Amino acid sequence: MTTSADTPETKVSRFQILRLISRNWLALAAVIFLLLVVACAVFGPWLMGDLIDKPNFRARNMAPFSLSQGWTYVLGADTLGRSLLARLVVGAQNTIGIAFFAVFCSVVIGGMLGLIAGYSRGAAGTMIMRGADIVMSFPSLLLALIVLFSLGPSVTNLILVLAITRVPIYLRTTRAEVLEVRERMFVSAAVALGANHTRILFRHIAPIVLPTLVTIGAIDFATVVLAESSLSFLGLGIQAPEFTWGAMVATGRGYLSTAWWIAFWPGLAILLTTLSLNILSSWWRTYADPQQRWRIELARSKKGIPEKRK
Amino acid sequence: MFAFILRRAGQSLIAVIGLLVLVFFLSRLTGDPAYLYLPLDSSEAQRQAFSETHGFNDPLVVQFGRYLVDLARFDFGDALSRNRPAMEVALEAFPQTLKLAVIAIVLSLCFAVVVGSLAAARPNSLFDKIASTASLAGASAPDFWVAIVAILVFSVGLGLLPTSGTGTALHWIMPIFVLTLRPFGLLVQVVRGTMMGALASPYVKTARAKGVNRSRIVFRHALRNSLLPVITVAGDLAASLVNGAVVVETIFGWPGIGKLMIDAIVRRDFALIQATVLVTAIAIFVLNIAIDLVYARLDPRIRFETR
Amino acid sequence: MTGPHLLEVKDLTVDFLSLGGAFRATSGVSFHVDAGETLVILGESGSGKSVSASAIMGLIDTPPGDICAGSVAYRGRDLSSLSEGERRDLNGRRIAMIFQDPLSHLNPVYTIGWQLEEVFTVHGVASGAEARQRAIEILGRVGIPEPEKRIDQYPHQFSGGQRQRIMIGMAIALRPEILIADEPTTALDVSVQAQILELLKKLQAEDGLAIIMITHDLEVAANMADRVIVMKSGRIVEEGEARAVFENPAHSYTRTLINALPHADDRAPPRPARPAGKPILEVKNIDKFYTLSSGFFAKPARLHAVKNLSFDVAAGETIGIVGESGSGKSTVARVLLGLNEASGGEALFHGRDVLKMDRKQLLAFRRKVQMVFQDPYSSMNPRMTVFDIVSEPWRIHKDILEKTRWRDRVTELLGLVGLNPEHAKRYPHQFSGGQRQRIAIARALACDPELVVCDEAVSALDVSVQVQVIDLLAELRDRLGLAYIFITHDLPIVRHFADRIIVMKSGEIVEHATTEEIFRNPQHAYTRQLINATPKPKWQTAADAA
């Protein structure tokens, strides 16, 4: 996903992007859902925090789809009678928050290493790539499990491990892009002008590479959410009393035959969140590719053209 | 071509070695390794004795040397939770995972190529929209949740399939389905993307100018070219298949290497952990070489490097 | 001429669909062609010439284009009335097309034999061993040596000219009646271009082909055309017999195109020699080796890109370095500017060896010697405004100009190259190719250099724009006393611009003389080949032969 110097003459404004998204109902639904999730993550604990603190024994293992205990119990309750809906909303903060910080760390670390690896022509670049190969050649889940096992599962370790297992992806992409940008003529021109390495790297190369990094970060967010959920499900992620959606599924696993909803809703929430992220990133990839963009724009513009002869 | 293979093999080998060194240092850096090897309730005296016998009080360099020698002999010590050599246990569990993984990757590749090609050949059609959304959903679904829902529906609800273990053919259905789902979803996306790119490329224009029909263009001209990046992605997927295997084996009680790793972690059996790490790393290493061979064979620009 | 034309296009109007609405690529275009004649569609980029041809083959739909009006008729039959199967059958059998960049237009994962045989197979003409035999014959016909051996090789194992021959072979395999050639020689060297054009003419004579050739190159057009149509912005502005159009152009646009030809005034004398001053740059015995990566066990091969090169540049002098691809001319520029390391030799700038300078000396050197690059699209950072781009030298060499005076100086420089002060706020993508090159020149002038190296600085521009930029460079030279090293593959364009010309081939200097001597009395066979390879108009060669 490189931006070439001969970008099209018309720069599309933000409004046009929003208009384009709204033409595709799937993408629009994804945007709305994600906004909802982010709202829960930010305001959830503040709005519904008290609802999950107090157990309600009358609602123990209550089935969903009934309003007898109030609207907050519409998704059912867990073994302690706590509203599942409330726990979902509150759990959003940890789930999204951990993923966000992990992605942020990956972007920063991976980006910096990628810049260095791509720009340096000496040993530093090769060594960084070997390190990335090591991390990449091993299943991330197992690597995370081993590291968390040795170092102990705390939230910081969790975020760090999630970040580090994803760093090679950002590193490789950044490096590939730096390698390509480095050969472009305006970099040679800058060298011919007398610019030093720092200036070339940070003034010329980095701004071009940054949008790609951010895009990958957004796409990768979904994968990190899934990874954290798997880790929490297996018991090595977040530890009680804190919880994420993945941990909620783990709790519900033992009650499948009696209270299936405890495990079902949190998993569904994970699915819908990652699906929305993937829909949006797939849409963005088509949009950002100048050769494929017409597929998005085509939908309505046909109406503005005189009748096709046939 | 051989230069290409050798170079890639060398790179992978370094990666495997690096991983083993990493495991070594992880176990030493986090304090007394005896804490990791022995159960939590062992006494201080037991730990001291353990450290002495296993040489954990020797200088780090000496320990590393001994570690390397043991590696070469595939001796990891005994799996304390099972009282058998760790490597033996690991090698027993490995084929179970291999069977699952191979079937999963073959199924997902075949279906993905067909679905992705058809979707790319008729972009924006109903088939394309359904295929794209379904594959996105497959790639987004948390595998542990899908497994649970599948058990809920087919075992608890309908009573059709067994919940765990191996044995009959029925035991294979759900684990393979869950394991195939994510790779299938991802591969359909990749195939669709590369095929759309291939179908838009100049040599397809030439083919159309020659009068070649649509299906030949899709399945002969475009597919061969788009397979190359797909194979690379399939190779990366192999590593994530092991991830999936961990979850699937845990939930379905499948006696593979993923379940073994989780058990080992839960029981704090460090020797077993090391053995499973090594087996998995070597398997992935071999797989990467195989993929590089296939790639080099398929791309004539590598097979016949111009001087 | 009785009966319908072999191919007739009437009132063709094609729209491309994009976000801002429909973009009209061609508007009411009409032309026809008959057996044995060559029609050239001449126009610059964006004129709609390629779209017109693609419409004939039914090839416009990525991004989707609508033929909203007009028709294409083959032997009187409207092509849109045909079924898809019939249309597909026409392609390759009766009407064939070749394209501009043969490497990307050939499928890289199949042998050329497979791709050639495919033409026979899909049209049901032959298969198996017979198809292979016919493919070998085709290869022989288009001039590929040892066809039995090379038929099993892949596209990347051939040279550019050979790949184009293979594409031509695929097109004429079934002896079609019409061949559409879309800029077939644009990416090729001048000498190879001449061979390809000869091949096309030979095939036309043998098979009675009708050729529709699309090009922006007037000389190629004059060399091939019986009739010519000139297109601009999707419309035809002039058409007629080739000689009539070229010698007496009616439309002003045609006149502009023709006057832009470097040797429109072939009879005018080349730039006269001037007395040389003291040399400011003395290049002595430069060598440059490239190490090619190869097999694991084999010794790495070395490419001797530049061999023992020596020349001088005096103050205010313009040296033209002319050579085809692979001659090493661009390598020389990169080595002199310190962008690549030389393997041997020295380059004395005011007596000090550039190749051995330390950081500080190099920085000072870079103020005095600047470069204008080939590709105006990628030689400027797309995220910087024109102001940032032109003022960047002052950010690096902080002692040239104080910051408060930057804005004025940028305005001055933009004015020097013919741009407005408001342009300083815009971004590179908002300008045309010629304007971008002017900005690049302004940037090069920012440090008041003594010597400017232009590495194929006009090659990527349209012909009419090339002349404008060279005129600008000449004007700046007279005004500011600049010296130039002007590197190009196109010998004629430096005829009125350079004082001395160096001709390079395979890394060596084959001839080095004043411009007058080079054009009046070329000594080396290669120089003569370069001068003569420029395509001559068709009617002139016919007249010469008579």
UniProtKB/TrEMBL annotation, chain B:
Record-linked SUPFAM superfamilies: MetI-like
Annotated compartments: Cell membrane
Statement: the UniProt record of this protein carries the keyword Transmembrane helix: yes
Transmembrane segments: 12-30, 100-121, 142-163, 169-191, 226-252, 272-295
Keywords: Cell membrane, Membrane, Plasmid, Transmembrane, Transmembrane helix, Transport
Coarse class of the protein's main subcellular location: membrane
InterPro entries assigned: MetI-like, MetI-like_sf
Domain of life the protein comes from: Bacteria
GO cellular component terms, semicolon-separated: plasma membrane
Keyword Cell membrane: yes
A Pfam match: BPD_transp_1
Domain ABC transmembrane type-1: 94-295
Topological category with respect to the lipid bilayer: Multi-pass membrane protein
GO biological process: transmembrane transport
Similarity remark: Belongs to the binding-protein-dependent transport system permease family.
PANTHER family membership: DIPEPTIDE TRANSPORT SYSTEM PERMEASE PROTEIN DPPB-RELATED
Protein name, per record: Oligopeptide ABC transporter permease protein
Organism taxonomic ancestry: Bacteria, Pseudomonadati, Pseudomonadota, Alphaproteobacteria, Hyphomicrobiales
From TrEMBL, chain C:
Transmembrane segments: none
Name by which UniProt lists this protein: Dipeptide ABC transporter ATP-binding protein
Location of this chain's protein in the cell: Cell inner membrane
Membrane topology recorded in Swiss-Prot or TrEMBL: Peripheral membrane protein
Keywords: Amino-acid transport, ATP-binding, Nucleotide-binding, Transport
Protein role: Probably part of a binding-protein-dependent transport system y4tOPQRS for a peptide. Probably responsible for energy coupling to the transport system.
Family: Belongs to the ABC transporter superfamily.
Domain ABC transporter: 7-258, 281-531
Chief localisation class: membrane
